[in-house]
Amino acid sequence: MNPTPHINHDAVLRARVALLGSGTLPAREEVAACRVLAQVSPMAYLPRLAEALYEYSRQEFAHEPGTALALRAEAVAAARRMCDLEHGRTPLLLTALERYRRQLEGMDRPEELASVDEEMALLGAGGRARLS
Questions:
Q1: What is the largest CA-CA distance in the chain?
Q2: pTM here?
Q3: Most buried among 11, 32, 38, 102, using CB within 10 Å?
Q4: What are the distances in angstroms from CA 42 to CA 69, 81, 85, 111, 119?
């Protein structure tokens, strides 16, 4: 754990216990735990945060496209951070961008779609990669 005065060590402990506990966490709780832990162990928790944010957007906010879009944008930001830390994580970013792109497509936002397509092409996805 990185020593820093801004980390709430009780929150870190609670988040670790939540993720390690038996049973399946609700998406909301997994996102909350991963957000905390990504601050202290980004290499370990940023990929999990990106995935948890997508699942949360899909499970809880399918009927609220604006909120789902914001969560997917946060997933893209987490994936970008991970790529900055470890350059071999481009597939994580491409997956997050494709999921974000699908949400934009469903909301009919062509300007933002073009930007995402451009970023994906720069990453070597050939534009519209079909990732899960």
A1: 45
A2: 0.85
A3: 38
A4: 23, 8, 9, 31, 23
